[in-house]
Design goal:
This protein has 6 helices and 13 strands. It has 334 residues and is an alpha+beta fold.
Length: 334
């Protein structure tokens, strides 16, 4: 092909490479033409005139010393001998940064961006890059799915007399698990408690509160008896020590019972705040672990081990159960 008579037409072809000039004169950023060569060919003195309105596809790349560990890239071309400094590089291409420019505007744009044409990539390598870019933009990419939700039942639990787990009530479909996209190819599981679960928790707290009256009365009576034993005359030093130890033990049990009662009362007072806070998804804990919605009063476990001790946290906790065989995943109405 021949240039125009005035030499103003920019003749481009597949594989043409432009190197960017920077303040230090090093050429690290490159552009390459990816159009098919036949689409860019022209001859001003024939019937095939300059295609001024045709768009030219440029892709960005960056030179990296061949001895360095490869950076992330859509595709690499290596080895590449730099036409100016004689060093060997790899070129890291980025398909996402490709850009289209009107053919008639390419010369002015390349000059404004400080790019100089230095060389042309050998045809096999240029075709390889062209095919890689085509595969990138024509790949099958389904739309990102919305957060997918499914229901689980929640057990409201407390400690039995032996310190093991005890289920007070099971709320069917009391929590919604959400499979949520958080980044490129990254997904996490979140959960949202239903308001019915919080209200059931308050009801269970009221029932547990009522069961503490008799143990408290028994402890108060036992403490009075222990005090009388300590104050009795004629006790040997060993008996007096034993009586004092028993009194301290009973007083500690009563203090623990009062603490438990106070926390249960606070559950009833704090649940209105929880009703608002549980509307925001929270990260689902790993199996057997917990998330503390309220560090003092509300812990949520995932498939807790009922053979272990209940622990020293809140007097009542929630346990997200595994899906039962007959449980419905998600109501059709939702």
């Amino acid at each position: 092909p021949r240039s125009g008579e005035e030499g103003t037409d920019l003749h481009l072809s597949l594989g043409d490479m432009f190197f960017r000039r920077d303040g230090e004169g090093s050429l690290k950023e490159v552009l390459i033409v990816l159009n098919a060569a036949c689409d860019l060919a022209y001859s001003p003195k024939s019937n095939r005139s300059f295609p001024a309105d045709r768009y030219v596809l440029f892709e960005y790349g960056r030179l990296q010393p061949i001895d360095d560990d490869p950076d992330s890239a859509s595709m690499c071309t290596q080895p590449f001998l730099h036409p100016d400094d004689g060093c060997v590089y790899r070129i890291n291409w980025t398909h996402q940064k490709a850009i289209w420019k009107k053919y008639s505007e390419c010369g002015e744009w390349l000059e404004a961006e400080h790019y100089d044409r230095k060389t042309r990539l050998a045809l096999p390598y240029a075709l390889e890059l062209q095919k890689s870019f085509a595969n990138h933009i024509t790949r099958i990419g389904m739309p990102v799915q919305p957060p997918m939700a499914r229901w689980r039942s929640v057990a409201i639990c407390c400690a039995k007399d032996d310190g093991k787990w005890s289920e007070l009530e099971v709320v069917r479909n009391g929590v919604q698990l959400i499979h949520k996209r958080t980044g490129e190819e990254q997904y996490t599981e979140h959960f949202v408690l239903s308001k019915s679960t919080i209200l059931a928790l308050v009801r269970s707290a009221d029932r547990v509160q009522a069961t503490l009256d008799d143990p408290e009365a028994d402890l108060v009576a036992a403490i009075e008896t222990a005090k009388a034993a300590v104050e009795a005359d004629g006790l040997s030093p060993e008996d007096l020590k034993g009586a004092n130890n028993q009194l301290k033990k009973l007083e500690g049990q009563l203090t623990g019972l009062h603490t438990r009662r106070r926390k249960i009362q606070q559950i009833g007072e704090a649940h209105k705040e929880w009703l608002a806070s549980v509307e925001s998804p929270r990260s689902l804990p790993r199996t057997g672990a917990r998330v503390e919605i309220d560090a003092r009063l509300l812990w949520v476990y995932l498939a807790a081990d009922y053979t272990s001790n209940f622990g020293s946290g809140p007097p009542i906790a929630l346990n997200i159960l595994e899906l039962a065989p007959t449980e419905v995943e998600l109501p059709k109405e939702a």
